[in-house]
Here is the input.
Amino acid sequence: MTRLAARALLAVVFWPALFFFWFLGPFVFFLLSTTSSEVCPRLETRAEFLAAANGTIPMLALQSLIYAIPILCLLLWGRLSPEPARARQIVTCVKLFGAAIVTGALWEYGSSLVCDGYGQPFFSPLWQMTNYLPIVSLVINVPLYVLAFSLGRAFSTREDDPADDAAHPDQDVV
Here is the structure.
């Protein structure tokens, strides 16, 4: 009974975190973590650009911690119901998540340095290449979302006990 309650509690945390943080969160955090286009024209020195970009680091760390909630739920579910096939999928999910976090952080930090195209070229043109990271992020996140969703569905659905089926002999088998 306690194992079922723990799985239900994880489902209550997992599904809202998955939908609100993973699907809606990127838009909110991207708007909060990048340097605003109103601020860009006022940045004149390399130090000001660096200060604006470094100011995004705490937000990126918070974002990563919040995004890790569904992954932590999957890891806990894996501990409650250990299965080798699911364990390999969870490891794949963790690796994809790590790649997504690194790619997303580089993109958001780099876009702060580039300052949405309004800034002066104080930094290497390599930072302008971060404009292509959303494509890489999409290539990583689509399989991550599908895998996390399917694992969450598998872990949060009730697995009927075979003993329960034997306890109801009045059911007709057709």
Observations:
- The mean pLDDT is 78.
